[in-house]
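Milestone M4 deliverable, item 7.
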Amino acid sequence: MNDMMLLRGDSAVAAIEAQHAPAGLAQGRIRRERPDLALAALRDGRVVARASCWWTDAPPIPEGRAGAIGHFHADDAQGAQTILDAACAALAESGCTTAYGPMDGNTWRSYRLVVESDGSHPFFLEPSNPPAWPGWWEVAGFSESAGYSSSRIALPAPADPRAAAAEARLERSGVRIRTLDASRLEEELRAAYAVTVAAFGAAHLYTTLPESDFLGRYLALGPALNPGYVLLAEKDGRLVGYLFAIPDLNEVRRTGATGTLIGKTIAVLPGREFAGLGAVLSRRLYDIAERAGFRHLIHALQFDGNTSARNLSGDGLSRLRRYALFAKRLDGRNAS
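Output delivered:
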């Protein structure tokens, strides 16, 4: 690796930006997402690998201190090894005991690698990477820390008696489901933010996103945020769960139209009182999607350890892809 030059900090950022922010890293994004350190590996004056490190605001973990490695890109195995070794060394020097990645600081931003695929085109807002990357992370000493998957179902979907029974029970308890009111968009999103914090607060590597950032993320979707594809469940005037779905804009760009709706996020308040609400919202979305002329619905990026997520969709699912977040202990022990 003697032919490799490593740049750190502002010089690394400048080198990356000078090469027109390769592989979809928008100009200025590194600075906006405020890593503690940016790294770039150069060969013959050209950036062949890059990564950023976060340790000041990295997600909390039960034991030790986490660090995140994100903004990752590598042209070859040598570049990947160089940049990941340098990132792990920087995190260890900063007191981190476990490195997680790829993760751009936290799980609200881009994270995970595709580790298995059926070969279909990536859908809108889905992570994408060359097939070799997971192996390069493993060679650098990382192992899978958490798994996720996306599945597709053809419409009309098979009936699900469990969802029907749950819907009847929830209706008797006073739960009502409606679509998002665009005239009260900010108020509706604020209520969804409160449910999000309650629903995902105990999730793996969860960090709380400021409400203003949450609102900005959804408002930035613009035309993709169709109120008819956002379902809100309320009880006694209080939001208790929601489902957010969007058309596959990647398919629109490829073909000029889309027959696919993406179920992006389902959030339900914890507790037995609202058990089954995720399945009910999912079935409602099937009906809406079918009436709107969609031929398929994707359940996107569901955590493999989430039992309720596995029960949402019933029969007829085919897995599109599996993803993994990787981890490496920096003190010589096995990662978890």
